[in-house]
Amino acid sequence: MKYNQKRTIFGITLTKRAWNNILIYAVLLLMFLLYYASPRDNGSTSEQTNTEVMGLIPGHLDLQQIIIDDQTLEHSNNDWRCRQPCSLSKQQSENVARTWLSLRMQPTELEPAAKVVDVYLYFGGDQTATVELYTEPRLLLRLPQQQRVFEPMDVTIESLLGR
Q1: Which of 62, 84, 110, 111 could covalently link to 124 via disulfide, CB atoms 3.0 to 4.6 Å apart?
Q2: Of the candidates 69, 75, 73, 85, which has an alpha carbon nearest to the alpha carbon of residue 117?
Q3: Of 79, 76, 80, 64, nearest to 127 (Cα)?
Q4: pLDDT tens by residue, 77-106
Q5: Rounded distance, CA 148 to CA 104, Å?
Q6: CB within 8 A of 148, min separation 6: which ones?
Q7: In angstroms, rounded to a whole number, what is the distance separating the alpha carbons of residues 152 and 7?
């Protein structure tokens, strides 16, 4: 074998063909590592987000008003009161507001049916949110702005509506 067919790199002397093979295997190894090390959007990650429990109202938002059917609950002076005409007592108003503020939910793939009511949430800074309540196939919340459906955790329709 002629001397000009051999190459020495990092103190290792190999033929051109051997160095080409090493280069090919190194590129394949790099591609393999990058493929399996990078995050992918597949079914396993969507299943993880499906079980994630989250709150309805982020902590940085200040809920000022809740409108359920013909009942308007208003927050003033660290107190929740129902604007007249209203069928809720002061204690019931506090309980309904506390339930909405602490509501925990998780995403679901269920299709809601049997809509009960639209609930309008008004926050400081002219921000609003609409929540649709459904009772079939079980208690579900739909956020029309996001086109997502959630299942509330540890609440009943009565505690959300004050009935």
Answers
A1: 62
A2: 69
A3: 64
A4: 888 888 878 888 888 888 888 888 888 999
A5: 15
A6: 107, 142
A7: 68
Print the SS3 string covering 87-154: CCCHHHHHHHHHHHHCCEEEECCCCCEEEEEEEEEEECCCEEEEEEEEEECCCEEEECCCCEEEEEEC
C-alpha to C-alpha distances, 4 to 7, 11, 13, 94, 126, nearest whole angstrom: 8, 16, 11, 88, 77
Q: Which residue has the tokens 């049916």?
A: 113
Cα(first)–Cα(last) distance of the chain, in Å?
93
Q: Rounded to whole angstroms, how far apart are CA atoms 37 and 6? A: 35
Beta bridge partners of 71: 68
d(CA 38, CA 93): 49
**CA 57 to CA 97: how far, in whole Å?**
12
